[in-house]
Design a protein that fits this description.
Blueprint lengths: L1 H8 L2 H29 L10 H23 L5 H24 L6 H33 L4 H29 L4 H18 L12
């Protein structure tokens, strides 16, 4: 067990994937959880009732499409898909920051625009999580260490969840304008890390 842990924790690609997934955890709950809280005090509080079905559709389609793109366009490489989705995430979060900061709260369109952004985020983060936490961890963890790699990488996801929970809990109590600006750097970091390992492929036999 110690040998497997050492192998995983000293594997630069697995550690890079874990850091990307930390960013995924920050962005996932940083958008999903806090949209519900924001919607309660918006001009259309009922918009949060659509969140469940919207996230289901976006998440399921994001996972399947991410896998398809990885296999068909990138030769089963996972990081290029993560980089693509993180690029979309960054643009989307910048748009969300502008909407929250500059669009009047009583404008009826504002909650629906943010709802659309939440759905795009769901598509991207769940697609990224699918190809990295599930698939890339098996690719680079090796046959004997796949379960350990998945556990470690998933642990980083929930470390990200904790970071956003503590931080946004304080920031949104001060001003909701801090919401998306806090998230944008994590999106940029996730993109840069995924781009750095975009050409990496697992070895076909042992010796990862």
């Amino acid at each position: 067990m110690l040998d497997i842990l050492k192998k995983i924790l000293t594997h630069p690609i697995v550690l890079t994937i874990a850091l990307i997934e930390l960013c995924t955890g920050v962005l996932r709950d940083g958008v999903f959880h806090w949209f519900g809280a924001w919607a309660k005090q918006s001009s259309v509080p009922s918009v949060r009732e659509m969140l469940g079905i919207g996230m289901f559709i976006a998440g399921a389609s994001g996972s399947m499409l991410a896998g398809l793109i990885s296999d068909k366009l990138f030769g089963s490489r996972r990081p290029p898909v993560a980089a693509l989705l993180y690029g979309i995430l960054t643009i989307t979060l910048v748009a969300a920051a502008l909407i929250v900061s500059f669009m009047p709260n009583d404008m009826i369109l504002k909650p629906y625009l943010l709802f659309a952004i939440v759905i795009i985020v769901a598509f991207c983060v769940i697609g990224t999580h699918g190809v990295l936490s599930g698939t890339a961890s098996a690719d680079f963890g090796g046959k004997q260490a796949t379960g350990t790699a998945v556990g470690i990488i998933d642990g980083f996801v929930y470390l990200g969840v904790a970071i956003q929970g503590i931080s946004l809990g304080k920031l949104t109590s001060i001003d909701w304008n801090y919401w998306f600006p806090f998230l944008i750097p994590f999106s940029v970091i996730g993109f840069v890390l995924a781009w750095r390992v975009r050409n990496v492929k697992p070895k076909l036999k042992g010796g990862h």
